[in-house]
Amino acid sequence: MTSPTLARPELTAADRCDRCGAAAQVRAILASGGELLFCGHHAREYEGKLKEMAAEIQK
Q: Where is the DUF7455 domain (predicted)?
């Protein structure tokens, strides 16, 4: 039996990068269940570390 996954809403113009406040383009869902939003620049900057942390990346 698979566990249900909570659907997260699509990113909108109101969603902002947690690092710089620019428009968010990427959502990183952490294994702990938390999430981070990043603009394209910061998503690329932190991509390696997020992969190490096994974060799910949604664009």
A: 11-58
Neighbours of 37 (CB within 10 A): 20
C-alpha span between 9 and 4 (Å, rounded)? 16
Cα-based torsion angle of the residue sequence 31, 11, 16, 47 in order, rounded to the nearest 10 degrees: 40
Model confidence over 40-55: pLDDT tens digits?
999 999 999 999 999 9
Span 12-31, pLDDT tens digits: 999 999 999 999 999 999 99
What are the domain boundaries of the chain? 26-58
49 is written with which tokens? 């570390």
